[in-house]
């Protein structure tokens, strides 16, 4: 059985540069990250206290 290829042409262009996030969005992300870190540390400290009380 013969294999036949059709000629295909396409133009490849680089992806558009990513847009820089707005400073307000970065501040919100920083605040959310800080809150998540604080909550994780608080839970870890509570867990450690419970484990040491046994």
Write the layout of secondary structure elements.
Blueprint: H1 23-52
Structure description:
There is one protein chain. The protein is an all-alpha fold and 54 residues long. Helices cover 56% and strands 0% of the residues. The protein has one helix and no strands. The chain has one helix spanning 23-52. The longest helix has 30 residues, at 23-52. It is elongated, with a radius of gyration of 27 Å. The chain starts with 22 loop residues before the first helix and ends with a helix. The mean pLDDT is 82.
Keywords:
mainly alpha; 0% strand; 54 residues
Short description:
By secondary structure, the protein is mostly helical. Helix content is 56%, strand content 0%.
For the secondary structure, the number of strands is: 0
First-to-last CA distance = 76 Å
* Shape verdict: elongated
Mean pLDDT: 82
Written as H for each helix and E for each strand, in order along the chain, the element string is: H
Radius of gyration equals 27 Å
Count of alpha/pi helices? 1
């Amino acid at each position: 059985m013969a294999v036949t290829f059709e000629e295909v042409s396409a133009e490849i262009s680089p992806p558009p540069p990513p847009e820089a996030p707005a400073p307000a969005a970065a501040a919100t992300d920083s605040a959310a990250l800080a809150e998540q870190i604080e909550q994780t540390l608080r839970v870890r400290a509570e867990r450690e206290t419970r484990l040491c009380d046994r």
